[in-house]
Design goal:
By secondary structure, the chain is of the alpha+beta class. It contains 4 helices and 5 strands, in the order βααβαβαββ. The chain has helices at 30-43, 45-52, 72-81, 99-106; strands at 18-24, 55-63, 88-94, 110-116, 125-131. Strands 1-2-3-5-4 form a 5-stranded mixed β-sheet, sandwiched between helices. The radius of gyration is 17 Å and the shape is elongated. The two termini are 29 Å apart.
Length: 135
């Protein structure tokens, strides 16, 4: 947030530096079904069910580049996952060495699928997961 007043002495609105959201995944949801099928094909039905049968899907996690590296992404993930009843948290991220991928690995997320291309797409993604609760 900015402490100094804006033009005309009016308070400035809060500065948004990131946003994140997630939800419980379920059969019938596009991302869930596509990833479940791919994980089932590569690792078997038992693994797909273990990871996605009762999962919290971290759908979007974004921090403005000027504010990355300050623990904001980590705090948002911890806040979203706090108290969740699901047995796992799962997400997708670009399958290359990005700051986001490094953060997820540092938080204990492991690769469930790599070089994964969503239907109709061309970019490669990693599907990552970790058991809940977060430590």
């Amino acid at each position: 947030m900015r402490d100094s007043p804006g033009e005309g002495g009016a308070p400035r609105p809060p500065l948004v530096v990131g946003f994140a959201y997630g939800f419980r995944g379920a059969p019938g949801q596009w991302w869930h079904d596509v990833v479940y099928r791919a994980l089932e094909e590569r690792a078997g039905e038992e693994a797909a069910h273990a990871w996605l049968g009762f999962a919290f899907e971290l759908a979007e996690i974004h921090v403005h580049p000027d504010h990355q590296g300050r623990g904001i992404g980590r705090a948002m993930i911890r806040t979203l996952c706090a108290g969740r009843p699901e047995r796992s948290a799962v997400l997708s991220t670009h399958d290359r060495p990005t700051a986001a991928r490094h953060l997820y690995a540092a938080m204990g997320f492991t690769d469930l699928l790599t070089r994964f291309v969503f239907p109709g797409g061309y970019e490669e993604y990693a599907i990552m997961g970790r058991p809940l609760p977060l430590d």
